[in-house]
Design brief:
The protein is mainly alpha-helical and 265 residues long. The chain is built from eleven helices and no strands. It has helices spanning 2-42, 53-62, 64-97, 100-115, 121-129, 133-157, 161-169, 174-185, 187-212, 217-226, 230-258. The radius of gyration is 24 Å and the shape is globular. It is found in: Cell membrane.
């Protein structure tokens, strides 16, 4: 009887622990929103400086139509730029990672390029392509392809020499080693880079929209800020964060399914 009670108690403790882990992000959000609203009310902060959570929620409801329209523009622009970044980053990472000479030669150049603030490219892109979606797409691409290149190249470049020697002795060619061993081995690196890249892609899109676009969340926030409608500005920030978190979680789930062998259960 005592054993049975102990087993049941352990079961419920495990269930409660898993439930708390799943609810932890939502609990953190609720606590953060409460602190936000209480702080604004306690210090009587003017809404044109820092709106409260309730005012921001009201702006989300009041301007749901424009926010939805501009959010969709930002979303598909970001996905196109991100898709270009994945394609170019994967190919370039494979080329660089397959050759030690190219790895040593190109890595410093990539680091130097990544150090350039991507907002500095926006005026150049405007001159080349005009104001609109193209500069936003290219800015998202420029800011997100670097982590993909680096992670894929690192995954290939760190292939154990002993494993490669054994495979070569067994008759595998260099390309066979890279495609059948190197690429699968670099998948954890690749999916880790996707989670980073998608959040950076949203940053690139919004930065470009604030400077060189007449649509998108970045443009909406700039317009609202110039009119001192800070509730709408913060509503735009929340929408950007929500889209980025959803995409991050999507790639995190893909990572778990595709690279379960590389992680502890």
């Amino acid at each position: 009887m005592t054993l049975c009670v102990g087993t049941i108690k352990a079961f419920f403790m495990t269930v409660n622990s898993k439930l708390i882990e799943r609810l932890a992000p939502w609990i953190a959000v609720v606590v953060l929103v409460m602190i936000w609203e209480v702080t604004v009310r306690l210090f009587n902060v003017p809404s044109f400086i820092f709106p409260g959570a309730l005012e921001t929620a009201q702006a989300l409801i009041t301007y749901a139509g424009p926010i939805g329209q501009h959010s969709w523009q930002t979303f598909w622009t970001t996905l196109i730029g991100f898709g270009l970044g994945v394609a170019v980053g994967l190919v370039l990472g494979f080329i660089i990672g397959s050759s030690r000479f190219l790895y040593n030669a190109c890595y410093p150049l990539l680091v130097g390029f990544n150090a350039i603030p991507k907002v500095a490219f926006v005026p150049i892109l405007v001159v080349w392509f005009g104001i609109g979606s193209v500069p936003a797409i290219l800015t998202a691409f420029l800011i997100c392809f670097f982590p993909i290149v680096v992670n894929v190249a690192t995954g290939l470049a760190t292939l154990e020499p002993e494993m490669e020697d054994v495979l070569r002795v067994l008759g595998a060619r260099r390309m066979d080693v890279l495609l059948k061993v190197g690429l699968p081995r670099s998948l954890p690196y690749f999916f880790a880079s996707l989670k980073i890249a998608i959040t950076l892609a949203f940053v690139g899109t919004v930065v470009s929209e604030t400077v060189a676009s007449n649509q998108g969340i970045g443009y909406l926030m700039m317009s609202a800020g110039s009119q001192m409608r800070m509730g709408l500005v913060f509503a735009g920030l929340l929408v950007i964060s929500a889209m980025a978190m959803v995409m991050y979680e999507l790639f995190a789930q893909l990572e778990k399914r595709m690279t379960a062998w590389a992680h502890r259960s």
